[in-house]
Each structure stands twice: as structure tokens, then as C-alpha cells.
């Protein structure tokens, strides 16, 4: 499902204009991005958490040149789904034989 499809579905279910829904969805994503860039985690109860994870400094190998590369510590965005969300997906997606 794409962002456009999400906007269309929300608009049809709520009766709100697509333009207004699009602005709201874009504003939500902008707030999440800016919060995570600032080092803050975003928790949405019943859905999940958008968290910033720290990756430690490590040594890697460049196979083509056969040299060691040091990758400095850095931060990456991550999503951890809520337990209730995981349970609903697990029950809703039963594999039929």
C-alpha cells in the first residue's frame, strides 16, 4: 500500500477532503522525522515505536581491495511494532494449506 492509497482510504472512510488528509499525513511524517533527527523516540500506543538506535564503531573489510575499513559509530532509525499490533497481524495472516 502506498502513501497515496492510504490517503485515499482515509479520505473515503472519514469524508475529509483528500488535500486535508494529505497535509495531515505529511505533517505526521515530518514530525516523526524531525523528532528522530533530534534524537527523540516517537511512541504510538497500540501501533509501535519509532526509535533511534546507536550502532557501535566496527571494523569491516573491503573485499575487492582486501583492506580493513573502520566504520564509525552512527545512529539509524528503526521501528518496533507494538505487541498488540504484532498479534493482530499474526492472527490475520494465517497461512492456508
Shape: elongated
Low-confidence stretches: none
What structural category characterises the helix and strand content? alpha+beta
How far the N terminus sits from the C terminus, by CA atoms, comes to 26 Å
- As an assembly, this protein is single chain
Account of the protein in words:
This protein is of the alpha+beta class and 97 residues long. Helices cover 43% and strands 30% of the residues. The protein is built from three helices and five strands. Strands 1-2-5 form a three-stranded antiparallel β-sheet. A two-stranded antiparallel sheet has the order 3-4. α1 packs across α2. The longest helix has 20 residues, at 18-37. The protein is elongated, with a radius of gyration of 20 Å.
Task: Give a brief outline of the structure.
This protein is α+β, with helices and mostly antiparallel strands and 97 residues long. It is built from three helices and five strands; from the N terminus they run ααβββββα.
What's the arrangement of secondary structure elements?
Blueprint: H1 3-14, H2 18-37, E1 42-44, E2 48-55, E3 58-62, E4 67-71, E5 74-81, H3 83-92
Antiparallel strand pairs: 1-2, 2-5, 3-4
Q: Which features characterize this protein?
A:
43% helix; 3 helices; two-stranded antiparallel ribbon; alpha+beta; 97 residues; 3-stranded antiparallel sheet
